[in-house]
Amino acid sequence: MNPLLLFEKWFSEEKELSNLKLPAACCLSTSGLDGYPNSRFVSLKEIKKESFVITGPLDSRKGREIENHSKAALSFWWTSTERQIRIQGDVSVIPKSEAEIYFKQRNRDSKIVSAIFEQGQEILDISYMQKLFKEKKAALGNKEVEQPNSWGGIYIKPIRIEFMEFKKSRLHERKLFEQASSGWKMTIIQP
């Protein structure tokens, strides 16, 4: 069984039952530059080339962490279906041409934020940030927002995926898929 197909099935079932505004939200974990794990919520764009696609500024903390240690983890928790999926994998940068497509799909305000701010860097105060945003938005008018050079995306090619279905009995069903030389190997693990 291909765990990526199972992921897509579970994701589809969650979207059918859920009224979540961001059903593709997931927790991306990386190895911090200071040795501490680092996690943040991001949005899954799609599964492509047998990998999970995440986008954003590559010069951000997460981008620098991935450049330093090209392994990451994703965690999904879906409340409607009471399912959790944990993914560990190897990271590579998506081609610039693909990043351009994802950037064009973003809403205008998100594009403007990406164009004028350096994610995670210090700023004087919130009102200054809001003023800067309003000024840039007004200056742009109806012009297209250019994609910053630092904005791109990553593939996370899984080596391990765990699916967990929560049960009222507390006998949660867990299936662990691991990459082996002959393809995916599945084991059932205890709750």
Automatic annotation (TrEMBL):
The record's listing under InterPro entries reads:
Pyridox_Oxase, Pyridox_Oxase_N, Pyridoxamine_oxidase_dimer_C, Split_barrel_FMN-bd
GO BP terms: pyridoxine biosynthetic process
**Top-level taxon in the UniProt lineage:** Bacteria
Required cofactor(s): FMN
Ranges where the Pyridoxamine 5'-phosphate oxidase N-terminal domain occurs: 20-124
* GO terms assigned for molecular function: FMN binding; pyridoxamine phosphate oxidase activity
| Keywords assigned by UniProt, alphabetized | Flavoprotein, FMN, Oxidoreductase
Pfam families noted in UniProt: PNP_phzG_C, PNPOx_N
Listed EC numbers: 1.4.3.5
**What are the residue boundaries of the Pyridoxine 5'-phosphate oxidase dimerisation C-terminal domain, all occurrences included?**
151-191
Per the UniProt entry, the signal peptide is none
Instruction: Describe how the cofactor binds.
Output: Binds 1 FMN per subunit.
Q: Which residues bind FMN?
A: 40-45, 61-62, 84, 174
Is Flavoprotein a UniProt keyword of this protein?
A: yes
Keyword flag Chaperone: no
Instruction: Name the PANTHER family for this protein.
Output: PYRIDOXINE-5'-PHOSPHATE OXIDASE (PTHR10851:SF0), PYRIDOXINE-5-PHOSPHATE OXIDASE (PTHR10851)
The entry assigns this protein to a family as follows: Belongs to the pyridoxamine 5'-phosphate oxidase family.
Classification via NCBIfam families: PRK05679.1
**Name used for this protein in its record:** Pyridoxamine 5'-phosphate oxidase
Q: Which organism is it from?
A: Aequorivita antarctica
